[in-house]
Every structure is written in C-alpha cells, then in structure tokens.
TrEMBL record:
Keyword NAD: yes
Domain NAD-dependent epimerase/dehydratase residues, every copy: 3-254
Pfam family, one: Epimerase
Protein name per the record: NAD-dependent epimerase
Keywords, in A-Z order: NAD
Length: 342
C-alpha cells in the first residue's frame, strides 16, 4: 500500500515509517520539524530513514530517501497549511493515512495553548477534509491515554467516560475522536483512533520521563519526581506500539463486507501499571548508578495512574505487548549511550 505517515520525524512516526518500508509498503512521511524539542534529534531520525538534513529542510518539496529510494519519500509541511496539504493529496494517491503529527506534551499545553489548537484541531480538521475529498478509505490516528482525565477506575477501558480532561492537550485529543466520528458517520470512511499509553524506547522524546531520568542519572544531576513518587504509568515499549499499529493499517477492509464498524477506538499499551519509583530503579540498575531524587508535588494536568485495558485490541488484532520494563529500559539505555557517545 501507499501510506501517508504524518509526524514522520517524531518518535513513533519514525519507527513506523521504517517498519512499513521494510515490510514492502510505500511511505510518504510528513513533518513540519518544529522546535518543541531538539530539531537535531528529529533530523537525525530522518537521516536514519535516508533523508539527509539538507533535503529535509526544504519546504513543500517531496524528496526521496537516499536509503530506500522511491519506497520512502518525505515532505516538510504543517497540517495547518491547508492548500499545501491538499496539493499533496492531489499528487499522491494514498491508500491509508496514519496521523501521528500533533503538538505533544501535557505540561507544555498549559503555557502554549495556541500551538495545540493550531496543530491538533485545525491541522486535524484539514486532514479530515483531504481524506474526504480524495477518497481515502481509512484514517488511523493517534489519540492519548490523557483523555481519561479524572477517571479513577482502572484499568482504563474504552467504555469509560472521557468527558473530564484535565489538560488542553487531552481536550484536543478527545476533540479528534469526536471529529473522526463525525466524518466517519457523514462521509463513510473508516477512522481508527489509538489511545497511546506512555511510549518509550530508542529515539524517544527528550521531554519524556525515560529520557529525563537517564540523562539526569548519567550526569549526576537531580531528577524531579512528581507527586513525591506516588505515580503509576502503563509504560509501553516502542516495538510493541508499532506491532499494534501495523495490523490496523494493513486491515484495509470496507464496512460493506466486514462486521467491524467504520469508527473504532482502541487502547494500546503494556496492560500493566508500573510504579514510577520502580521504573526509576530499573534505570538505576541498568546504569549501575543511583539517582538523586528531588520530590515535587503533583503537576497541573497530570494524573496519578494510567493502566490500559487492551482487550478490544487483543480481540480484533491479536495484540500482545511482550517487552518487559527491564528489557525495554536496557534497549533505551544502549541506544542513549551510543547516540551521545557515552
């Protein structure tokens, strides 16, 4: 298939693009390479895909990978740029769109709300319009575990109410789910939303706990531990996430002969809740170093615990998360040391 992957310079988008190409699909990666975090990390991800920085910096120009040839192409635009986005859809005949582009980060949304409205609402709306107008049969898109907000019942189930988000980021992701439902209902194309749970692994985001803790411990600088360490997260290794996305992208059915609905939502996580202090201990054990912890209060927009019920994804796509925390941490640390020449 020919697949558009938005957010291709991002953590999950990079891994997904690489896997899809290796499986024989054609990929067009899209990203605006914004500076929310290190653009050098984003350009180095693209370099791994064979798109060198000089090429990747060109605006609204489709460039070809030096590593994968015509099987992987890249274009630098934002989803907010409606005319450019529509032109891309007109020139390329996509079978499936996988939208991983978004302004990420719960805490950042408290300080820069406009960025979230522009990218996650306006950009997503533009994408839906392009899909509608260019006869794309399936949109797979990133939602987030943050939509569960003030929900206290664990594990989180798709059937639980998500009407009480506590960050603007979460609110935009909930909005994406509602917008997708509307377009599926009105225009008859499939949408599948994936609520990601705390993804970590090689090439991860530097604003995430795994990255921050590893950096702090190696540099012998204090790490901030929120809610005095009384937090739990469903930490999910990147390979398990990609293994869950691929079958959904490849499941190119139509509702006319398949009983599955046009509109679908799934949790995708490790299906285990790990105490934050145990997660830190796993990093310490791998590095053979101890962290200097600075206990902090709960942060605005944060939740105490996340835990995914993935039974729907298991039922429909035989999803399994097979990577233990110890194994995943070791893989990340190995990459981190190599990347930063430690």
């Amino acid at each position: 298939m020919k697949i558009l992957v938005t957010g291709a310079a991002g953590f999950i988008g990079f891994h997904l693009s690489e896997r899809l190409v290796k499986m024989g699909h054609q990929v067009v990666g899209l990203d605006n390479v914004n500076d929310y975090y290190s653009t050098s990390l984003k350009y180095n991800r693209l370099k791994e895909l064979g798109v060198l920085e000089e090429k990747a910096k060109r605006i609204n120009e489709i460039v070809t990978s030096d590593k994968y040839g015509d099987a992987l192409k890249f274009i630098r635009i934002s989803l907010e740029e409606k005319t450019m986005l529509s032109g891309l859809f007109s020139s390329q005949k996509f079978d499936v769109v996988c939208n991983l582009a978004a302004q990420a980060g719960v805490r950042h949304s408290l300080e820069n709300p406009a960025a979230y409205i522009d990218s996650n609402i306006v950009g997503f709306s533009n994408l839906l319009e392009c899909i509608r107008n260019h006869d794309i049969k399936h949109l797979v898109y990133a939602s987030s575990s943050s939509v569960y907000g003030l929900n206290r019942e664990v594990p989180f189930k798709i059937s639980h109410s998500v009407d009480r988000p506590i960050s603007l980021y979460a609110a935009t992701k909930k909005s994406n789910e509602l917008m997708a439902h509307t377009y599926s209902h009105l225009f008859g194309f499939r949408t599948t939303g994936l609520r990601f749970f705390t993804v970590y692994g090689p090439w991860g985001r530097p604003d995430m706990a795994m990255f921050l803790f590893t950096k702090g411990i190696l540099n012998n600088t204090p790490i901030e531990v929120f809610n005095n360490g009384d937090l739990e997260r469903d930490f999910t290794y990147i390979d398990d996430i990609i293994n869950g996305i691929i079958p959904i992208i490849e499941d190119n059915y139509t509702a006319s002969y398949n009983p599955k609905k046009l509109y679908n939502l799934y949790n995708i996580g490790n299906s285990k809740s790990v105490k934050l202090l145990d997660f830190i201990e796993a990093i310490e054990d791998t590095l053979h170093l101890k962290a200097t912890k600075v206990m902090k209060p709960m942060q605005p927009g944060d939740v105490k615990a996340t835990w995914a019920d993935v039974s729907d994804l298991e039922r429909d796509y035989n999803y399994r998360s097979n990577t233990s925390i110890d194994s995943g941490v070791k893989q990340f640390v190995k990459w981190y040391k190599a990347y930063y020449s430690i």
